[in-house]
Predict the structure.
Amino acid sequence: MNHSTSQELFQRALQVIPGGVNSPVRAFRAVGGSPVFIKSARGAYIFDEDGNRYIELINSWGPMILGHAHPVVQEAIVRAVEDSFSFGAPTRKEIEMAELICSMVPSVEKVRMVNSGTEACMSAIRVARGYTGRNKIIKFEGCYHGHGDSFLIAAGSGAVTMGTPDSPGVTQGVANDTLIAPYNNLAAVEALIEANPDQIAAIIVEPVVGNMGCVLPQKGFLEGLRTLCDKHGIVYIFDEVMTGFRLSQGGAQKIFNICPDITTMGKIIGGGLPVGAYGGKKEIMDCVSPAGKVYQAGTLSGNPIAMSAGIATLRYLNEHPEIYEQVNQHTRQITEGIRKALKNNGLNFTINEMGSMYSLFFTEKPVTDFESAKTSDTAMFAFYFREMLARGVYLAPSQFESLFVSAALSEADLQHIEQAHAEVLAMVAERMAVVHK
Ligand SMILES: *Cc1c(COP(=O)(O)O)cnc(C)c1O
């Protein structure tokens, strides 16, 4: 596979864009080599600048659940463009979008549109703080809620300590207000609450994690958090930026039957355009300006083109529940193929999956939190990634990401993925044997 144009473009990009990319994981640092520059995509396929075709298993990190350039969404965008691109004034489409979200996501009574998942999560904790009059939040190690300062915090030493900044530019002051617990560890959360009585404004959690690879909540974890939040007057925030409209029409909360106080959304909600949203209980959302005193604004929020793409995508999902059966079936078929290849080659790696999200972890340990995710052999993952890419399968360029399966895959695509896994995992087994000699 020739990548010479991508390589040239990357050299050019490095001159004028930090690291050559506008979002770090795109740089392929975790897997080596230079990133593939994309020219176009349609359905299940993405095409690079050298004319190579790949089967898509990232789908823009989730949004393209219907596949690329779905005709229904495309038509909605084209029609919207004819009426100009931005007004900075209210539109009918924003109401349609809000009504659609409130009807689909069980816990959402009122919703505010923003432009990214990051903005949604930043705003959600501000509202939680305004509503409770408290400062601290609890987040989980390995969960990602965008690049807001409050979320770029690493676990301190020991479960009951405050966090430390995970990035230069984040102040210790901000870090002091973010407490970190291991995922799936209710006891650690209880300890944090006890050590900080009446100080916790919010607990924010990915109900199914995508951002340390796919990690599932253990039985009772999400329910236990709900109970703790109720007991201590804490705002319970589900970050459904990944899981929203993906695990079901009503997201993870519908599947687990849990009613969070605030839900953050992104990715699928924009159908590929930059959209985020946060919504929840009326009483809490009415704290947001101009209904209430918590300030949050956006020049391009509720942008008409973005709303059109989002509405078309959500309506389509609403009217075609069979999409979920399709993407889930595709995912099962892919992971079955991986399991078969693992078994045939005497490998015992961990697969986590739910709905149309899955990860193959290069570790034999069960992966239930960030510590266990980190036992993965990332060098071996990098090898696997590059060999899959060479066989025309486009995976996330990091061990610590979930894959996102679309409805556009054909039976032939699924067989191609299975064949690629059979070949590549045999090579992995060979390399493991050499390493362990
Ligand atoms: C992607 C993601 C975000 C951030 O969304 P952006 O649109 O990239 O700012 C927040 N939370 C979760 C769970 C995500 O997966």
Q: What stands out?
A: The chain has two domains: 4-68+322-435, 71-319. The chain has a mean pLDDT of 96. The two ends are 32 Å apart (CA to CA). Residues 116-118, 121, 144-146, 206, 210-211, 239, 241-242, 266, 276 surround pyridoxal-5'-phosphate (CB under 6 Å).
